[in-house]
Amino acid sequence: MGTRAWALLLVLCGTIFLEGIDVAMMAVAIPAVRSDLGLTTGTAAWVMSAYVLGYAGFTLLGGRAADLLGRRRMFLLWLTVFLAFSGLGGFATEGWMLIVARFVTGVAAAFMTPAALSLITTSYEEGPQRNKALLVFAGTGAAGFSLGLVIGGLLTEIGWRWVFFAPVLMAAALLVPAVRLIPRRDAPPTRRRAFDLPGAITAAGAMLLAAYTVVRLEHGLHDWPLTVAAGVAALLSGWAFVVVERRCPDPLVRLGILRQGPVVRADLGALLFLGAFFGFQFVVTLYLQELRGWSSLQTALALLVMGIDAVLAPTLTPRLVARFGNARVILGGFALAVAAYALFLPVGMDWSYGMMFPTLLLSGLAFALAYGPLTIAATDGVTESEQGLAGGLLTTATQFGSAIGISAVTAVYGLASTGSGPEATLSAFRAALTVPVVLVALGALISVVSAREVRRAARRASQVSSVNASQTRAKPAQRSGGISSWK
Q: Would you tell me how many other CB atoms lie within 10 Å of the CB of residue 212?
């Protein structure tokens, strides 16, 4: 890649880094925010959940909007919105102001991130160049989250408002070069299309209700009728969305893309992998801070080794993909993740950092192997006109995965907390740690299916090639015999 291509990639990767660091810093800062503004536990929880609802609720719409309205336009517009509302959050004096700011910031990320991903898949030639760009993109996002834990701890010590102001400075630093580097040739289709407003409304409604249901899961059996009602409403909205899209001549989402096996398996694999990763990280953070008494900065530094994928994803993973293919590398990542999380199941009250280190290192290695290739698989073979949609589906899967992972471990922890005292708390943590193991085990099964499909496709292609080669060799002889007879 040339200098301009690398510069464009750095800008686009900067947005996923910004999104990752924003989420991580907020997770570290929320106790200080709650204490300073006197927020209730419920309000503090909604400050965190509002971002998830905005992101997961609109990312599918955001991905398709990039295809229909222009990727450059959507990227620049929503990066500006992200900048503005992150700044407003820094000036908040009431809980509701933070909730609104975080919700709109999540919506901005839902439009901005798929646009950035589709700009990569349409700006770099399919094959090794695009694969390397996507692996760098994936590794940068993970690095943002890992570094965000440390940076968030440092900024919180100065003042929690800097957790909101720092993304403003970073977004501004990305916006200026983005205006120059993103090609203007990226434009919406010349054929005028009626925007599928009913599809947009039903899609956003279904995603918002589904995200709310997932967030409600962390409450366990508390107010379960509300959780069930939200789930039923999400299913009905999803059904209405499918009906609308089937009847619409220009649907927001071409439902046929959901019948592409490799894309669906990649999205489902990303959902399970991210769910396990964030669920595990959430439990470990609680274990270190609540049970062991570590500070937020000590915890962030301990987890920093999980960010090793930021180094390996753009360096080692492309070589492995080139040699073994996406499917095998993804399977290797899931296998490492199963081993990593299983090693942590017998965690003790007085485990040293050395005993935790193998799991933390292996989980970072697993992320480097699995996430980037999953991103490639989720967009591979999709037409250019639907790259935004493919990016939206992948981002939807990752956001729901992280929400499901955190909610599931929280629910299991709550159900397993049957007593008081350190031993009872430790037992509940061990129960919650089974969730990441189950999620990556399911992902490993799906990746086995994908690897088998790749082998079968390669075998069929080899057989067809052999038949064509034999027919090519036979034709000259047949033609020669015919001429001889005619003579």
A: 21
Q: Is-contact 239 375, C-beta < 8 A?
A: no
Can you give the pTM of this predicted structure? 0.82
Q: Could you give the dihedral angle defined by the CA atoms of residues 120, 124, 125 and 127, in that order, rounded to the nearest 10 degrees? A: -60
Q: What is the pLDDT of residue 112?
A: 93
**Cβ count within 10 A of residue 478:** 10
**Which pairs count as long-range contacts for 183-186, CB under 8 Å and 24+ apart, including other chains?**
183/72, 183/123, 184/72, 186/70, 186/71, 186/72, 186/119, 186/122
Amino acid identity at 104? V
Distance, CA of 118 to CA of 165 (rounded, Å): 28
Q: Tell me how many degrees the CA angle 254-182-378 measures, rounded to the nearest 5.
A: 35
Asked if the model's pLDDT at residue 352 lies above 70, the reply is: yes
- Say how many CA atoms lie within 13 Å of 128 toward its Cβ: 7
d(CA 87, CA 102): 10
Q: Which amino acid is at 387?
A: Q
DSSP secondary structure of 35-67: HHHT--HHHHHHHHHHHHHHHHHHHHHHHHHHH
Query: What count of other Cβ atoms lies within 10 Å of the Cβ of residue 348?
Result: 9
Predicted confidence at residue 146, as pLDDT, reads 75
Beta carbons of 101 and 88 less than 8 angstroms apart = yes
User: pLDDT tens across 185-194, in order?
Assistant: 655 554 555 5
Express each pLDDT in 267-312 by its tens digit: 999 999 998 998 898 888 888 877 888 887 788 788 888 888 878 8
Which residue type does 465 have?
S
Q: Which residue has the tokens 């991103």?
A: 375
Judge whether 146 and 304 are in contact, CB under 8 Å. yes
Distance from the Cα of residue 360 to its chain's centroid: 20
The phi, psi pair for 248, rounded to 5°, reads -80, 130
| Ranges of H-type helices in 159-287 | 162-181, 197-216, 224-247, 261-286
Place of tokens 């991905």: 63
Q: How many residues does the chain have?
A: 487
Cβ contact 117:395 at 8 Å: yes
* pLDDT per position as a tens digit, 203-249: 888 888 887 887 777 666 677 888 899 889 989 988 998 898 888 88
Token code pair at residue 217: 């899961």
